[in-house]
Design a protein that fits this description.
The protein has 351 residues and is an alpha/beta fold. 39% of the residues lie in helices and 12% in strands. The chain folds into 2 domains: 243 residues, Alpha-Beta Barrel (TIM Barrel), CATH 3.20.20.70; 76 residues, Up-down Bundle (Four Helix Bundle (Hemerythrin (Met), subunit A)), CATH 1.20.120.1460. It has 16 helices and 8 strands. Strands 1-2-3-4-5-6-7-8 form an 8-stranded parallel β-barrel, surrounded by 4 helices. Its cofactor is FMN.
Length: 351
């Protein structure tokens, strides 16, 4: 295990230690999650928080450049949205970043954290931590092509390359040569073999102090933290040390958490969000998507956890799960499920 270094190190900048300005655009975000944070999910999450930065699923450069589908599709009401890219070819990444900027994305993020075999075979994701110069080349190519922010999401280490010095060298190279000023750090290392992606999110121990130390040693960079954060109270504690917090699965499985983000983390004094109103706000979007051939279940699958802890939540989930994927399912299915929820207490009272 490393030892936290309180004294200056070779990576320390001349900026005063401890200066941590607020970077509102990165202050709170919902993590990119493959097969989960699609455009329907993001539209739903935007009904719960106006301030959070939302991320796309990871999209590979090959899919964008050569795929037959529109992998950059989104709704303008989702903004601000960051596109997470998977790839390691600077030219292809720059091309995709440019296309994303033209489509109106708020930020570009490079995936240097996913440990899956499929991602490694494509030479991107967490395995790129071992190729800091290549990551820097990729970042520089994208930054030269677009005017929107370009960021990196990474781990604290990979395999046996898990020392604090290794992490600092990676950050120093990507920030210096790559001109990257924003890093989202998943506070676990990744094992590139022997663990599944799910196990890599749970088995390697969390090391929040290492991320805190990174901010102290690189105070001029924007550093956000990710991994194992389950409440806004935890997020507030992290924000005492860092510039931003990213929450993934907890925000997806318990989306009611997002209803408290604007007031708790951004000082927004708007009225509390009512979960019934959130669902009703989705109706026009659902009807529009159904008219375009989207199946109801592709939208409502992201909404199942909305009433967690509220009487009727089980009936809500069951009705949607059993009926939303049926041919011809429409908004009436959601209305019926909504009638089964008894408690109308605002979600923020339950966060």
């Amino acid at each position: 295990m490393h030892e936290n270094r309180e004294s200056p190190n070779p990576h320390q900048s001349s900026v005063t230690r401890g200066m941590m300005p607020k970077f509102t655009s990165q202050r709170f975000s919902v993590a990119p999650m493959l097969d989960w944070t699609d455009r329907h999910c993001r539209y739903f999450h935007r009904q719960l928080t106006r301030q959070a930065l939302l991320y796309s699923e990871m999209v590979t450069t090959g899919a964008i450049i050569h795929g037959k589908g529109d992998y950059l599709a989104w709704n303008e009401q989702e903004q601000p949205v960051a596109l997470q890219l998977g790839g390691s070819d600077p030219v292809a990444l720059a091309q995709c970043a440019h296309l994303a900027e033209l489509r109106g994305y708020h930020q570009i993020n490079l995936n240097v954290g996913c440990p899956s075999d499929r991602v490694q075979n494509g030479r991107f994701g967490a395995c790129l931590m071992a190729e800091a110069v290549l990551v820097a080349d990729c970042m520089k190519a994208m930054r030269d092509k677009v005017s929107i922010p370009v960021t990196v999401k990474t781990r604290i280490g990979i395999d046996e390359q898990d020392s604090y010095e290794f992490l600092c060298d990676f950050i120093d190279t990507v920030a210096g040569h790559g001109e990257c000023d924003t890093f989202i750090i998943h506070a676990r290392k990744a094992w590139l073999s022997g663990l599944s992606p799910k196990e890599n999110r749970e088995i390697p121990p969390l090391d929040y102090p290492r991320v805190y130390q990174l901010k102290r040693d690189f105070p001029h960079l924007t550093i956000a933290i990710n991994g194992g954060i389950k409440s806004l109270q935890e997020a507030q504690r992290h924000l005492q040390q860092l510039d931003g917090v990213m929450i993934g699965r907890e925000a997806y499985q318990n989306p009611g958490l997002l209803a408290g983000v604007d007031s708790a983390l951004f000082g927004d004094d708007s009225p509390a969000v009512n979960p019934l109103d959130v669902v009703r706000a989705m109706f026009p979007y659902i009807e529009c998507e159904l008219s375009r051939g989207t199946w109801l279940g592709h939208i409502t699958r992201h909404m199942l956890g909305l009433f967690q802890g509220i009487p009727g939540a089980r009936q809500w989930r069951r009705h949607l799960s059993e009926n939303a994927h049926k041919p011809g399912a429409d908004v009436s299915v959601v209305e019926k499920a909504l009638s089964m929820v008894a408690d109308r207490q605002p979600l923020v009272d339950r966060v």
